[in-house]
Design a protein that fits this description.
The complex is a heterotetramer, with two copies of chain A and two copies of chain C. Chain A is of the alpha/beta class. Chain A has helices spanning 48-51, 73-98, 112-121, 135-140, 145-153, 186-200, 218-229, 262-265, 278-293, 325-328, 334-344, 350-373, 398-412; strands at residues 127-129, 206-211, 234-240, 270-274, 299-304. Chain A folds into two domains: 42-382, Rossmann fold, CATH 3.40.50; 384-413. A five-stranded parallel beta sheet of chain A has the order 1-2-3-5-4, sandwiched between helices. In chain A, helix 2 (73-98) crosses helix 3, helix 2 (73-98) packs across helix 12 and helix 3 (112-121) packs across helix 9. The longest helix of chain A has 26 residues, at 73-98. Chain A starts with 47 loop residues before the first helix and ends with a helix. Chain C is α/β, with parallel strands linked by helices. In chain C, strands 2-1-3-4-6-5-10 form a seven-stranded mixed beta sheet, sandwiched between helices. In chain C, strands 7-9-8-11-12 form a five-stranded mixed beta sheet, sandwiched between helices. The chains are: A alpha/beta, C alpha/beta. The interface between C and D is large, with 46 and 46 residues. Bound molecules: thiamine diphosphate (2 copies) and magnesium ion (2 copies). One thiamine diphosphate (TPP) sits between chains B (133, 181-183, 210-214, 239, 241, 243-245, 307, 311) and D (29, 58, 82, 86, 89). One thiamine diphosphate sits between chains B (133, 181-183, 210-214, 239, 241, 243-245, 307, 311) and D (29, 58, 82, 86, 89).
Amino acid sequence: MTRTPRLHIPHPPARPGADPDFSYVTRVPAGSVPRPDPHTRLRDLPNELIYDIVRVLDDEGTAVGPWDPGLDPDELQFGLRHMLETRAFDDHMLRMHRQGKISFYMKSRGEEAVAVAAAMALKPSDMLFPSYRVQGLQIARGRSLVDLMNQCLSNSRDMCKGRQMPIMYHWKRGNIFSISGNLTTQYPQAVGWAMAAAIKGEDDIAAAWIGEGSSAEADFHHAMTFASVYRAPVILNIVNNQYAISTFQGTAGGEHRPFAARGPGYGIPGIRVDGNDFPAVYAVTQWAAERARSGTGPTLIELVTYRVDAHSTSDDPSRYRPKNEADAWPYGDPVERLKTHLIRFGQWSETRHAALVEELKAQVERDWAEACSYGTMTAPPFLDKNELFEDVYADMPPHLIAQKKQMRALEED
Amino acid sequence: MTRTPRLHIPHPPARPGADPDFSYVTRVPAGSVPRPDPHTRLRDLPNELIYDIVRVLDDEGTAVGPWDPGLDPDELQFGLRHMLETRAFDDHMLRMHRQGKISFYMKSRGEEAVAVAAAMALKPSDMLFPSYRVQGLQIARGRSLVDLMNQCLSNSRDMCKGRQMPIMYHWKRGNIFSISGNLTTQYPQAVGWAMAAAIKGEDDIAAAWIGEGSSAEADFHHAMTFASVYRAPVILNIVNNQYAISTFQGTAGGEHRPFAARGPGYGIPGIRVDGNDFPAVYAVTQWAAERARSGTGPTLIELVTYRVDAHSTSDDPSRYRPKNEADAWPYGDPVERLKTHLIRFGQWSETRHAALVEELKAQVERDWAEACSYGTMTAPPFLDKNELFEDVYADMPPHLIAQKKQMRALEED
Amino acid sequence: MPRMNMVQAINSAMDIMLDRDPNVICIGQDIGYFGGVFRCTDGLQRKYGEHRVIDAPIAEGGIIGSAIGMGVNGLRPVAEIQFADYIYPGCDQIISELARLRYRTAGDFFAPVTIRTPCGGGIRGGQTHSQSPEGIFTHLCGVKVVMPSNPYDAKGLLIAAIEDDDPVIFFEPKRIYNGPFDGDPDKPAVPWNTHPHSEVPAEYYTLPIGRAEIVRPGEDVTVLCYGTMVHVCQAAADFAEVDAEIIDLRTLSPLDVTTIRQSVEKTGRCVAVHEATRFSGYGAELAATVQEECFYSLEAPILRVTGWDTPYPHAFEWDYFPGKRRVAKALEQVLEMS
Amino acid sequence: MPRMNMVQAINSAMDIMLDRDPNVICIGQDIGYFGGVFRCTDGLQRKYGEHRVIDAPIAEGGIIGSAIGMGVNGLRPVAEIQFADYIYPGCDQIISELARLRYRTAGDFFAPVTIRTPCGGGIRGGQTHSQSPEGIFTHLCGVKVVMPSNPYDAKGLLIAAIEDDDPVIFFEPKRIYNGPFDGDPDKPAVPWNTHPHSEVPAEYYTLPIGRAEIVRPGEDVTVLCYGTMVHVCQAAADFAEVDAEIIDLRTLSPLDVTTIRQSVEKTGRCVAVHEATRFSGYGAELAATVQEECFYSLEAPILRVTGWDTPYPHAFEWDYFPGKRRVAKALEQVLEMS
Ligand SMILES: Cc1ncc(C[n+]2csc(CCOP(=O)(O)OP(=O)(O)O)c2C)c(N)n1
Ligand SMILES: Cc1ncc(C[n+]2csc(CCOP(=O)(O)OP(=O)(O)O)c2C)c(N)n1
Ligand SMILES: [Mg+2]
Ligand SMILES: [Mg+2]
């Protein structure tokens, strides 16, 4: 006797109107996951790395367990500052979008630690292949917000020369690759970059970020296969913020196993980490970087977090999830948690925090004013229209020269 | 201090001139792997399913252990016959290629059990999505060799009407899908077919085959993701015959972990089976079919075998592997092993075997003669050339009607 | 008759087909519970169930590959690719499989899949939300390519596509989802209900695939266009005060050569217009066909007005977009030539 | 000067570049130890090491994606796609990434990747080993598309492609790897060493990308062709006894319009020939361009001789292949017209 099969459809834990339900999120006490030597062979790594969650900050804000990276107060304050700067930047840019000043924006609220801590754990010469939701990488690497704003404004100083939508930054000097609108394409590119480093005998490594939804794309598989086969010095990060646009992580295949579990099947260690736990993200990235840099091989990191705000300025999450879901997220907020930790150890205070928030707000506004002075969507200085035809090829071929002329002729009409 | 990384390049166990070395092949005694209930949840399945190898026939030819499917002598003889028929067919067709009678061929020598046993373990109404190297599926489902030969000859009775290279069969009535020249495309198609069965509440299942080399293609990942997310009633088989064309399985990512290990990361059970062990292949397929049919979900099966002959008639394996490597394959030959088993239990004899080989040889020759009577590459009856323009669309659009006329006009010139 | 915009008309087509034929299913990213990022599938999952309006993983190749398998198993899948810019990961399944399955199996297997996908620019989408890749797909034999320009056509053609036993790639010009657009971004947006073709029957009807429509008869020059450009070309003809015969191709492949030939034989001049890049774009096929078919009627070269041969730049959207003035200029030029 | 066939010439180009530039690497399926299924990389791994001539997994998307990353990190990867029919799984990386990277980063990042891939039919390869998908790639801005027709050009153009800072898709017409082929399968195979362009310098040289070559001057009709068809067209002109000016385009994108224009202005007639399917194929661009550029010189419509708009059928290879007689017929037709 067989039962009649029916198509299984994964269901999110809660829909609008229902109470948030994060009972599916693995909860383990901070400090409980062992930290193997980074040179350990895959087969000797403990399963807890995947099925539990690496956490360092406990509920009281104490850093505990073997993964505590033992960061100096300076470093932690640096991290906190850059998370707050990211948040201030995001908030400002969303406002600017609401005011019609930029055409599009994507925030990373709640996911700041994922980017900022990782950037700090890597060397400045390591090459980063970001998704669109890790703006903290740029900020932690010291990028001026004015540069980012210029891009969002497509103004005269836009590093993309107006060719990309807002947030699709790149930073050649800062070793941050260009963000693509096409999901996951950066993953095999990062692996290729890392392969090239290995071919050349250089010891820089590559790191790439995608969302959990993006892990369903072909390029995830390409990247994992090539990273495994050539033991490429690369860190492959999956930021599992529970949602793609409207679909929850189960639609991407996260219903049965953590995304980190994809790793071992390819011969690549997987680690799951609390993405809202700054020291934990730092420690796990550091561990993976050590593996990569020493030639031990690639690592797949799943960063468990929650997308607090809308997917983008084109999205309305109240259509598909409970309004108060963010508040129920069991791992809290990365900024609050690091702040509590610092305060607990006398390295920070509410006053300093409030002052920093104010300082950053003012800085963002100053930066915005400066960026606008390089042009906005409606006010000069504008980019030169003729730029439209540059950089398609290294040298402009005859048909583009002709088209450029044609455009100019039209304007003179 | 970090070591200078270098690109890791996987190396095959032996190159031409060296001694074959199959020390990397996991060897476990027959009967040692437990057989869990097919409805067991993934998390409760034992690791041995992946890291050991399901084997039933021991070195003496006795069927042992929990996976022994307990097939009747009739069934085993049926299996043996069809494996031998496959082999006779392959041998004949290779000869015909050497004689210039067909333009291309691909043998499955050494891999006959993979196809024949699986076909027998499935229901005739289950839909099969083959690769090019599982011709045993067709034969075990009772297909006339004449039909297959007609296709290889592109003759007047070719089911493809001359449109595909030899061996790219399909069999609508027999529920065997069309073979594509593009690797792995059938994998997500099989999943979609199975999803449709589930949507319609029908209890037929789908099964698909690819080679281990093909598992690197994007469609592997697509198939695994969709099968997992929708719990599709499908069996996904990877035939690991150690080689793609010239590259060994390590180049496809098999160096560190069995291909079966890819399953669990997606939430899909993986099983590794001795592909040259007829009852073992049968048992594992039956187990996976039961899972699929009952709605428990998909299974990834890795069939460990060895490609004894060249990749295709365009290949020369002596360029990349030791000449005598096949003889060193630790799992023997599927035909010999089943034969030994049957003889051991008094259900077969050398004489009957020799007679069957002769009978099949004669039958293949008769079939060939019949097929040739429907036309060959050089002798009529030929397919009608006008067929060239049919079936591009359901109805021929005007531009194809015009092109057809143009072709005819040219001929009449 | 009810008034619909393009989104509603497309939604209505799927609604009707899901209702009429239990084998019709929809699959795509965010199309189910959410109703689609452009809301084309709004309400359909609630009405027909999660098994028939299916939220898919972000894997275009998987969506198309599985849709082919479903099609082979008797369903009529309508797959949505969220933006045409994201169709490329599905290219192998489209080109190597979907387009060729019937041929390679001599008709024994086929997959009647419809692929819906929003295309075109003008929504500040930058280079990855503005593409018009239709030209690539018209080069494939075995798939049909359709692009409607208004709600009435969209519904009738989408139903026809879903019922078609051949695979159809159905491009939806997203700039005109909510209203016709004549190419001038500075004018206030016009809603569809001011346009005659927003009168859309609530019930089932089809329009034939493979048939172009003369949307404005004229004597002096034939304008070949489709999608958003149909509206731009009309505005351009008005602006240039040219008596243009404007043909909305509606189906790009197979092409309705008869309608085109008759028109160009009459007018003796032709301009082909599209938003996609020019080189090896669909306009090339139009020009090649027209000069083959009507050479002796032609009084001037066939001109092409297209997007420039660059990606679609965010900041220079309106310099890129082949708007009214660019089309008008070509109309004037082609009339001056002889 | 040494004589080489196409395979040797291509091998020599890579050999020289691997030697001259430590940043050049090769990656592809079976290209390393084995030397490639067509033997184009024979001996290169032995000479330059496993880190520079790399056997890849069977994942075209991975090959191109990783090659882009390598290119960004300063290497000059030469990626082989085993058959052009198998390039589609790499389409997204080619179209969305490789072609656009320089543009979207305003020149800050680029990937100088060369993609080599054998194309075309006539080897009994059936529908999945015979395709000519070049038309699709010519529609992309940001990649160059090259197809040589003889050993001398193959080597000079491949070296130029590898040195080019833009990505180049380098199509190799496999039917002429071992000898020129005039389209008649019944004639005995001719080896390259009877052909003047098999004289190939052993050392480094380049030919400019973007430049066509007049392989036979003539007065009555211009024939535009490339790859295998260059040989077929020459045979067809002989057969039809037509004084054709035959232009081997060599680079399909960017196109050498000047050479074409000058020729058609002289001859007044034009035939475009390729093996790929016709509808929206590259011949459409040629026809469109020629009539735009030379309308007033044209005395007859531009004809296209191409593969039929069907997949390439195994059994009817020679009915499908646009051979000598089909080209000859078009030459006669275009001369009769006026
Ligand atoms: C190839 C491709 N398909 C679809 C999209 C449309 N899209 C943009 S973002 C997104 C969701 C991505 O979700 P996830 O990877 O989880 O990242 P998150 O937004 O959560 O950070 C989708 C479907 C795209 N940009 N590219
Ligand atoms: C998409 C694609 N890429 C490359 C090829 C060329 N090719 C044909 S068979 C083959 C090797 C496949 O190896 P495997 O999957 O292990 O199957 P096996 O031949 O061993 O049965 C290759 C590379 C192809 N047919 N399709
Ligand atoms: Mg997400
Ligand atoms: Mg194999």
